[in-house]
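for the recovery benchmark. tokens below, seq after
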């Protein structure tokens, strides 16, 4: 893991030798400590030996795709941030990457500086929030145990879904813009796409509203999102 004076340890996974070498060189020059893997199985082995601080993962690889790698890591309990790379810019592809547990999605070709900024955002240590239990709208959120219940029902949330719900619950009744949520949940302070917020709001609603439960997470058109019991 990285020390206090290093930006972070990065594992770059791509089956294209030229891309892998280029990213390794560029990220090293940007101050990161970099390891590489040429495929999905090699990536899982590398994470198993020494987990990096952040994973840069190509989506389209032969043998074992980046989606499959990310799914396997999350299934094994690995919580490291994952930035997925793809030549595909279709909404369905971005959603598939996020559903698999990816934290960010960058379309090739891209500027190295944008990748560096996104990695810093993923690695940024945000000020710690309190560990008191948060109660709002029938929700009970325990940051210490990292659990969330609605009316006694345990919610099966990903790391990002949990962070989004906790942020909204701590601001019950207040409308938060997409940019505010990006900064507080994703850690971004740069100009990036905000559709990830809408995607995760959709995932979170589906889980909150299971078994016919009423809507708690509302869209305020043209502004953002708010957690409250009334529309």
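predicted aa per position
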């Amino acid at each position: 893991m990285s020390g206090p004076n290093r930006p972070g340890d990065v594992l770059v996974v791509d089956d294209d030798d030229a891309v892998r070498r280029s990213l390794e060189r560029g990220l090293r020059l940007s101050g990161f400590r970099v390891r590489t893997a040429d495929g999905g199985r090699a990536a899982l082995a590398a994470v198993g030996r020494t987990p990096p601080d952040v994973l840069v993962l190509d989506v389209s690889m032969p043998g074992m795709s980046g989606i499959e790698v990310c799914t396997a890591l999350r299934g094994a309990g690995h919580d490291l941030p994952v930035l997925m790379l793809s030549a595909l810019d279709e909404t369905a592809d971005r959603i598939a990457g996020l559903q698999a547990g990816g934290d960010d999605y960058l379309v090739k070709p891209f500027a190295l500086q944008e990748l560096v900024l996104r990695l810093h955002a993923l690695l940024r240590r945000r000020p710690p929030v309190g560990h008191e239990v948060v109660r709002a709208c029938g929700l009970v959120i325990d940051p210490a145990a990292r659990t969330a219940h609605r009316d006694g029902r345990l919610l099966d949330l990903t790391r990002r879904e949990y962070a989004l719900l906790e942020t909204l619950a701590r601001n019950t009744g207040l409308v938060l813009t997409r940019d505010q949520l990006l900064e507080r949940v994703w850690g971004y302070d740069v100009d990036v796409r905000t559709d990830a917020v809408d995607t995760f709001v959709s995932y979170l609603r589906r889980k909150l509203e299971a078994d016919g439960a009423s809507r708690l997470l509302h869209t305020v058109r043209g502004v953002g999102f708010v957690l409250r019991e009334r529309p």
